[in-house]
Amino acid sequence: MSWRHLLHVVGAVLGSLGVLMLAPVVVSAIYQEWTHLPGLLLAAATTTLIGYSVWRSFDRPGELSTREGFATVGLAWIVLTVAGSLPYLFTGVISNLTDAIFESAAGITTTGASIFPDPGVLPHGILFWRSLTQWIGGMGIIVLSVAVLPLLGMGAVQLARAESPGPMPDRLTPRFSETAKRLWFVYFVLTVTQTIFLWVGEMTLFEAINHALTTLSTGGFSTSAGSLGAFSAYSQWVVIVFMAIAGVSFALHYTVATRDPMAYFKSVSLRVYLGVVFVAATFMAIGTWGGSVSTTLRDALFTALTIVTTTGYATADFALWIPALGIMIVGLMFVGGMAGSTAGAIKSDRLLILYEASHTDVRRLIHPRGVFVTRIGKKPVPDLVVETVQTFFLLYMFAFMTGTFLMAIFGSISGQNLDIVTTVTAVASAIGNVGPGLGDVGPTSNYLGLPWPSKWLLVSLMIVGRLEILPILILFNREVWRR
Predict the structure, then answer these.
(1) pTM of the predicted protein model
(2) In a 10 Å sphere around its CB, with 0-12 CB exposed, 13-18 middle and 19+ buried, how is residue 13 labelled?
(3) 212: enclosing H helix or E strand
(4) Distance between CA 25 and CA 278 in Å, rounded?
(5) Residues 226, 313: Cα–Cα separation, whole Å
(6) What is the pLDDT of residues 129-172, one digit of tens each?
(7) Which residues are paired to 375 by β-bridges?
(8) DSSP secondary structure string, 148-187?
(9) Which long-range contacts (CB under 8 A, 24 or more apart) does 278-286 make?
């Protein structure tokens, strides 16, 4: 492991984030928010200068090894989270480091948990920065850099593998830099398309852009305290459609658009993902039946999608629903969309592999001399992939249980005894990158009132969940740093 190579890449990515910080500067100037403009400019200049200096000061890496790729991504996301807090601190919108880091982490990791009771009172430049962090965090700042910076071309697969959700990143072309460009193109086109559809409704152009950025990234930051509940049924249906799209592998979208129009119908993972959403929405509709039929069905489908895709928007206060639905919502926080989507949590692909692998194990017990292979559809799943998925699931659940235990302890130490519902759902929401939970962190509440140790714990879980554990875990392995 070479620190010089690692810092070279981290510096390049940090510099890229600094350049992207100029976007909220432009927005702030358009809305003549002169009070906050200097802070945004200072944040952009500081991030760019530090990133460029680190990039120029250290050697350019050759071909990155797998462990270097994982370590680079883990360190980069920690650094980016800290850098993302600068616009909040330098403008004075957030006055303390803990809350600024929390809001930044919730953006970069697309978690959507916020400390702001009413984002509608924030200046436009800050609102846009919140949304932009989710958009670039959705597809991945590392993948973005691989797509646009030739200097990261070497070792691109290792970087993308460490950052991309799912067992393995899909490669649409022999060169991963070309794959990254195509995935980002699909991401961009879908974002523009949703913006147009939302703008046609009652949303202003600014509101439409912000919600498109945070829908395709499955982030969930809104410009209103009422989230999507503050907008019309038309806007909610548009968001429903694009949340469903965001939960599907972007590589699958590209394949359908360019190669095989029937690829959607051939995907077993897609059927599982949509099946979970349909079943969840059905139970939610039954459990909340009453009043307007159209509103009940829309709220049920919206809530099922926003939890399964880990977007985190809300049109109804599902924290007030019957306990059975609350339990189901907690379970859905662990599901997630397809691998290769911007959704968080475990992913439906992994759960499908776990189910098929357990079915294979049962058949082996019944027929000890038989030869059985785990399959998804007609495709065999290598034993190594099965073992990797099982390891990931074990680590994920261990992180959830440990996080819940620490959350309860931190609450007690701080003299703020959090109830079990708040504790469990806050941790599940953080590691799954969902956003809202239940109890004191429900869809109509926020995370401002949590004790500061709990916020730092949730920040850690957000990053661990977004990077799917291994890139962060590998940073604490001594063997990784040996030459």
Answers:
(1) 0.91
(2) buried
(3) helix 205-216
(4) 42
(5) 9
(6) 999 999 998 887 556 555 555 545 545 555 555 545 555 455 55
(7) 380
(8) H-GGG-TTHHHHHHHHSSSSS---SSSSHHHHHHHHHHHH
(9) 278/304, 280/304, 280/307, 280/308, 280/328, 280/332, 281/305, 283/325, 283/328, 284/318, 284/321, 284/325, 284/328
First CA to last CA distance, the chain:
6
Which residues share a beta bridge with 305?
Answer: none
CA 157 to CA 168: how far, in whole Å? Answer: 10
Let me know if 398 is exposed, middle or buried by CB neighbors in 10 A (0-12, 13-18, 19+). Answer: exposed
Task: Name the residue among 141, 120, 23, 131 with its Cα closest to residue 78.
Answer: 141
Structure tokens at 370: 């038989």
- What was the pLDDT predicted at 248? 92
Helix, strand, coil share of the chain (percent; to 5): 70, 0, 30
Here the tokens at position 286 are 């039954």
Residue type, 191: T
User: What six digits make up the tokens of 251?
Assistant: 């590589």
DSSP class of 475: G
Helix axes 420-431, 323-332, angle to 10 degrees: 30
Supply 214's token pair.
């945070």
Helix axes 124-139, 97-108, angle to 10 degrees: 50
User: What contacts 270, CB < 8 A, 6 or more positions away?
Assistant: 248, 249, 252, 264, 338
Tokens encoding 167: 């067992």
Residue 110 Rama label (left phi>0; alpha psi -120 to 50; beta): left
Q: What is the pLDDT of residues 7-47, one digit of tens each?
A: 888 888 899 899 999 999 999 999 999 999 999 999 999 99
Which residues sit opposite 380 in a β-bridge? Answer: 375
